[in-house]
């Protein structure tokens, strides 16, 4: 079968006019109008390419038409048309104008004498609809023509502007543009966890034949399944995300938008898009047909679509999508708090799980104390199910709460960073016996640049109105260690975690006048042009230390 463009271009208007106007005898007024409409439609259509996927843009309520011609030459002429909606449902149909072979041949040769036209009036000719469809599924029409014919495709979107792809082929022997789906194209869910779902699907015959040019790509989202890769791309873009071409189906390095994260590991490409409508993941895993999706949210319904993609043409076919709901997260273990007892909690930043503490009041007034050791922590306190405190804490934080005897308090702690965080917690009714020392207005250490020398630095810090013990420690560090030292410092650890050689001195001081509650110290015996990390520990009556913010100072290189 072959497209007859050569003879079709020039006399097309003659062919259509003759076929449409001479196909019946003595048409009525309404029939004349119908034929004029058909003629106008064919005149204002576009030629559809054979063997090539065509993108068609549709405006709302405005039909768009394409045509193609099949000429005689074989007893049966097969052809295939595949239409892929990329957004909303559309209406589309195939119309055919049939005419006798003798007439078409003569019209093509430009033989328009009166005798031939008179004969052609006796030849059967008509326009009919042979297929129509309405929906948003990928639909394929396979036809067979035993005569020369002019075909027209008409597309209409009634919801909004959209686009579709159309693929016509008359060569059914050299293989399809689209990868082939298995007989059973369903995706099976073979495992569900709190944060994982394991999927499997049957191999595409195309993978077995062209393994190096074919790969599977998985789309995960929380809204619904998509019937084509084209529809998925359109939906994600409309949510405000900008995608690499064809959902990054090849492993080429694309430039991502700020709301995108690309992860490449073990020959798998994952792209995570974050938007207000939720998270969308795209994972391309080569030719593996079993995959476990990790790091999902508990008790959440997810939709999974698998696409088989030809990397050479970017053409794809969609498996039948599925969905699954992850298991509910088990109730967190609740730790009982006891009066005056301090516990330290380490929070997993990656899993973002809550750590729960419970306390039953034995007094009407109680005080919760939190000392942040590392990272960032969010504290949520409820009394008998009602929220009484909710905030991110830093340093040392007290909550004084009033209630009734036997009120039940629930404390939930969560790391607000991806790295682990830790915090010390205490609850007590004994306000006259504080666990932690009285703190100054600021826990910052100040250094004096003008007082720096090649072998000494001078630092200062604030004290309180309460006589307390202060211990100073120093540590020599390198330039590339500064960020790590400051980031990983455990603000709850005391001098017992330090090497003895790092201790500089311990001293007591206080001042009733807070304006004068400042002390300075000059640390000598240092090396020139060297970075040092200085720490000050404050000890209260209970002996539990509070660590000031670390200070990094560099001695002068030349004096």
From TrEMBL:
Q: Where in the cell is it found?
A: Secreted
Q: What is this protein called?
A: Protein NDNF
Segments forming domain Fibronectin type-III = 179-316, 437-545
* InterPro entries found in the cross-reference section: FN3_dom, FN3_sf, Ig-like_fold, NDNF, NDNF_C, NDNF_Fn(III)_1, NDNF_N
Pfam families, A to Z = NDNF, NDNF_C, NDNF_N
Give the signal sequence positions.
Answer: 1-21
Protein's job: Secretory protein that plays a role in various cellular processes. Acts as a chemorepellent acting on gonadotropin-releasing hormone (GnRH) expressing neurons regulating their migration to the hypothalamus. Also promotes neuron migration, growth and survival as well as neurite outgrowth and is involved in the development of the olfactory system. May also act through the regulation of growth factors activity and downstream signaling. Also regulates extracellular matrix assembly and cell adhesiveness.
Q: Which GO terms describe its biological process?
A: nervous system development
- One term of GO molecular function: heparin binding
Domain of life, per the record?
Eukaryota
User: Could you give one GO CC term from the UniProt record?
Assistant: extracellular region
Q: Which UniProt keywords apply?
A: Glycoprotein, Neurogenesis, Repeat, Secreted, Signal
Q: Provide the species name.
A: Eudyptula minor
